[in-house]
Design a protein that fits this description.
Layout lengths: L15 H4 L3 H26 L16 H5 L1 H5 L17 H15 L11 H24 L9 H63 L1
Helix pairs in contact: 2-5, 6-7
Amino acid sequence: MSAKFHFVDLAGSECIKKTGAVGNVLKEGININKGLLVLGRVIAALSSKQDKKGQYIHVPYRESKLTRILQDSLGGNSKTIMIACMSPAGSNQEESLNTLKYASRARKIQNTPTVNRDPQTILVTQLRQEVALLRKELQIYRGGGEVNVVSNEEVRELKVTLQREKALFREAAVELGQLRDNEIDLEMTLMQQHKELDMLKVKNEQLVMIIKTHG
């Protein structure tokens, strides 16, 4: 398994009148505001999901670098935590209110992260672990150290459980083999369809040449 961890410090909105920025600092503030504007649109789209007509709303991830970076965190297979920081000063009331609105909309986004694992692989791994554990227990019981503690009935039950787990493991292996065979068949079918498509393209080009020649 592998995972990514994104820790993003979202810059606050730049009020040009307050900062009095000029030159490159002014351009940087404008870019920050653009990124936050697109982020607000993405959060609004994800929190509403559907418009009034029941159609899914387009989420504009690609409109800024910020939203591209945060795509997995906002609407992907991720767990996301957002910490909203506000100023108690009255002069920053507008910025604090906007931050609260951001956080309120972001809370409506519901991600459902799942582990990226093949279910067949998980089943085979679990069965192997159970079989290994049962074999170890049987070896301990047969070794003499705990024979007097464990009854013959319990040993028989362990043997039956071991046989059942082995049968399940064999069934899973057979099912996995069938899935692999089906995958190979699908690949062969796809290759054949590509060949037929290429032949149709060649025939089409030949027909076009004939039409041009006799046209």
